[in-house]
Design a protein that fits this description.
Elements (H helix, E strand, L loop, with lengths): L2 H12 L1 H13 L2 E2 H7 L4 H13 L3 E6 L2 E6 L1 H15 L15 H16 L11
Antiparallel strand pairs: 1-3, 2-3
């Protein structure tokens, strides 16, 4: 799977409503647009829009029966996406510094980054890197 397709799928499932629709489709095996619209507090036109994004990302397939459109999960796409994502993000490259290979400099830099992030946060959690 190329990066363009990987990103298109990631964007499709990044939207919480689309992800919820996808989960519902997966759980039911096959479901119509109208049935999905009844399950979610959004207009049927909005459901149709989200389904179109999922179809374009090849995460679901549609079949038409009369005036109704039925959707089902394309499990092979989900499996390919998962494998491609693991491959894309899997092993660190040889050019990246290893955590133990530079005399502790990497760990010190990570601690500084954590401290910087905590300084920017407004959650009020204590700075754990100081200990």
């Amino acid at each position: 799977m190329d990066d363009t397709r990987l990103v298109r799928i990631a964007k499709a499932i990044a939207d919480p409503t689309r992800y919820a629709l996808l989960r519902e489709i997966a759980a039911r095996g096959e479901i119509s647009c109208g049935q999905l619209a009844e399950l979610f507090p959004i207009a049927q036109a909005t459901v149709s829009h989200h389904l179109n994004v999922l179809v374009n990302a090849e995460l679901v397939e549609m079949r038409k029966q009369g005036q109704h459109h039925y959707f089902r999960l394309r499990r092979e796409t989900v499996e390919q996406f998962a494998l491609a994502l693991v491959r894309a993000l899997g092993e660190p490259s040889a050019t990246q510094p290893s955590p133990s290979g530079n005399g502790g400099q990497h760990q010190k830099r990570e601690q500084e980054e954590v401290r910087d992030v905590h300084a920017m946060e407004t959650c009020g959690c204590p700075d754990r890197s100081a200990s």
